[in-house]
């Protein structure tokens, strides 16, 4: 198969979907790899390294899309890429269709095969290609939140861990999944007073057993959230419903109950966000203020630490990419239920229910259920 790796063009996105080591693996399996020039530079990989392991370098993104049977990316295609994607071309990347109606319609129109990292799912319902970036984003949410609590950045002017004689900041984490767990660990390690909320009592029991003493678990409901936000200095939105929009747990009206300078970090923003007032921002302009509340809503947080993020991501994606290249998407998805769950749009039809529901579009259930498509 011919693999194409374009340079990411989303604002300040420095990750790359395939490392030189990944090129070597693809070559070992008999595939051709074309990499756009400078695609790996942001993550610390030069064109020369790719060439050394067997990749061919192309000068433009148009050339990469034109030659490739499978496109490997990190972030969803943006508008300038829509017309480069063609019928029957396999695109393997994060899509987050439920947060972008224009992208959904563009990929339906392209009749390409859209296999989304974020909905590849194991039998235990874990999301192996989302977990590495969730770990990075969870840890980063505290790092960024602590920074924006500083007064020159319009925060409350509070040190996350406090000092002897002065109480630490209060951190509220909404969601006890991978992002929430990593955020809580980081905040607790810095000495903050941490509260994790989740709708699952079994999950809260697990967290209670593994977290340090300065982490408290509370069941998530509107009453408890309403009370907790009044005291929180830093609030982390860490809610995920696979393939679907995140629910709004904090509304615009609730901002008035927070103290001026409170910082909101909505890690779920690439799935629509769990804070009503959050809109996607970039690393270039990461924050905005509404009602004296600082909103940090960068949709590609791990892109700021691309060396770590690229290695963590490609460690997880490469085995699946090799399967797709070796067998083609139809056979690979027929034989691997995890990959099959990653299919979101195929040949102009939505085959992932939550994406169809997000935009009230037809869902092609027959294609999803057919075992040998």
Tell me about this structure:
This protein has 373 residues and is α/β, with parallel strands linked by helices. The protein has 2 domains: 2-119 and 306-369, Rossmann fold, CATH 3.40.50; 131-299, 3-Layer(aba) Sandwich (Rossmann fold), CATH 3.40.50.720. The protein contains 13 helices and 15 strands. The strands form 2 sheets. Strands 3-2-1-4-5-6-14-15 form an 8-stranded mixed β-sheet, with helices on both faces. Strands 9-8-7-10-11-13-12 form a 7-stranded mixed β-sheet, sandwiched between helices. Strand 4 (70-72), helix 4 and strand 5 form a beta-alpha-beta unit. Helix 6 (131-148) packs across helix 7. The radius of gyration is 21 Å and the shape is globular. The two termini are 19 Å apart. Its EC number is 1.4.1.1. It is an enzyme of class 1 (oxidoreductase).
Throw out a few tags for this protein.
single chain, 373 residues, alpha/beta, Rossmann fold, 2 domains, 8-stranded mixed β-sheet, 7-stranded mixed β-sheet, 13 helices, 15 strands, globular, disordered C terminus, nucleotide-binding, EC 1.4.1.1, AlaDH/PNT_NAD(H)-bd
């Amino acid at each position: 198969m011919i693999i194409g790796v374009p340079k990411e063009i989303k604002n300040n996105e420095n990750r790359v979907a395939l490392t030189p080591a990944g090129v070597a693996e693809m070559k070992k399996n008999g595939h051709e790899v074309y990499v756009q020039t400078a695609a790996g530079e942001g993550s610390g990989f030069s064109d020369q390294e790719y060439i050394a392991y067997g990749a061919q370098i192309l000068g433009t993104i148009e050339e990469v899309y034109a030659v490739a049977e499978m496109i490997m990316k990190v972030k969803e295609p943006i508008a300038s890429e829509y017309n480069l994607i063609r019928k029957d071309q396999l695109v393997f990347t994060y899509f987050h269709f439920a947060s972008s109606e224009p992208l959904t319609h563009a990929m339906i129109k392209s009749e390409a095969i859209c296999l989304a990292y974020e909905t590849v799912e194991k039998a235990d319902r874990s999301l192996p290609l989302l977990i590495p970036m969730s770990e990075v984003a969870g840890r980063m949410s505290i790092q960024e939140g602590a920074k924006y609590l500083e007064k020159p950045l319009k925060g409350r002017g509070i040190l996350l861990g406090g000092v002897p004689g002065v109480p630490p900041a209060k951190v509220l984490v909404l969601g006890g999944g991978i992002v929430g767990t990593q955020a809580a660990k980081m905040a607790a390690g810095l000495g903050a007073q941490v509260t994790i909320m989740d709708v699952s009592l079994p999950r809260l029991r697990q967290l209670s057993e593994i977290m340090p003493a300065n982490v408290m678990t509370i069941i998530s409901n509107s009453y408890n959230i309403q009370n907790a936000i009044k005291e929180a200095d830093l609030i982390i939105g860490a809610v995920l419903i696979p393939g679907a929009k995140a629910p709004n747990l904090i509304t615009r009206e609730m901002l008035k109950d927070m103290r001026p300078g409170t910082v909101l970090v909505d890690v779920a923003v690439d799935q629509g966000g769990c804070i009503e007032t959050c809109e996607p921002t970039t690393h270039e302009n990461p924050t905005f203020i509404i009602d004296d509340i600082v909103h940090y809503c960068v949709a590609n947080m791990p892109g700021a630490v691309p060396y770590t993020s690229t290695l963590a991501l490609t460690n997880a994606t490469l085995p699946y990419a090799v399967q797709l290249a070796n067998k083609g998407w139809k056979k690979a998805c027929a034989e691997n239920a995890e990959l099959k769950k990653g299919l979101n749009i195929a040949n102009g039809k939505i085959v992932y229910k939550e994406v169809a529901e997000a935009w009230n579009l037809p869902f092609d259930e027959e294609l999803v259920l057919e075992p040998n498509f």
